Amino acid sequence: MAISDTHAPRRWRGCPPAVAGHLRGADLILHAGDVCVPSVLDELSAYAPVKAVLGNNDGPEVAAWGAPETLEFDLDGLPAAMIHDSGPASRRTARMRRRFPGAALVVFGHSHIPLDETGDGVRIFNPGSPTDRRRQPHGTIGLLHVENGRLLTAEIVPVT
């Protein structure tokens, strides 16, 4: 499962029930930054292991929890990466390919705008925000189904 921009405690005052329903079946939770307080990562860790990166609103407490600025990792054989801010929409896939040349999938956040796009040999995925939808019709999370090094499905799921 992928999540981003929870912005606690201003926006996230505990795991929303619709999000918790999806967390119960998760094997891994990817948080693409702007957690704001590490207690959110502790809360998510009660459901499944968590990998997180720092967002522009995250301080030293989130870094001390173990969130770096970027992360590259293996997702059941699929080379993946995570970053909070992927920059402007223009040429985003090319930029992510240069930044993470070995990644087949890059998960990011920051904009609160859900996105699933493929280009320049990389798939980029922004789950949006479950708690701060801004100009979006719904708060969202992302569900990623990976098996044997292949991303089988990537889905943006409304939770509000």
Secondary structure elements and pairings:
Layout lengths: L1 E2 L13 H7 L5 E3 L7 H7 L4 E3 L7 H6 L4 E6 L2 E6 L8 H8 L5 E3 L7 E5 L2 E5 L13 E8 L2 E9 L2
Family: Belongs to the metallophosphoesterase superfamily. YfcE family.
EC number: 3.1.4.-
Protein name: Phosphoesterase
* Sheet with most strands: 5 strands, mixed
Give the spatial strand order of the biggest sheet: 4-5-6-8-7
Terminal residue distance: 17 Å
Which secondary-structure class do the elements indicate? alpha/beta
Helix-strand sequence = EHEHEHEEHEEEEE
Number of strands: 10
Query: Nearest-angstrom radius of gyration?
Result: 14 Å
Overall average pLDDT: 96
Helix content: 10-25%
* Count of alpha and pi helical runs: 4
EC number: 3.1.4.-
Pfam families: Metallophos_2
InterPro entries: Calcineurin-like_PHP_lpxH, Metallo-depent_PP-like, Phosphodiesterase_MJ0936/Vps29
Cofactor: a divalent metal cation
Question: Can you give a write-up of this model?
Answer:
The protein has 160 residues and is α/β, with parallel strands linked by helices. Helices cover 18% and strands 31% of the residues. Strands 4-5-6-8-7 form a five-stranded mixed sheet, covered by helices on one side. It has a three-stranded parallel sheet with strand order 1-2-3, with helices on one face. The protein is globular. The protein contains four helices and ten strands; from the N terminus they run βαβαβαββαβββββ. The mean pLDDT is 96.
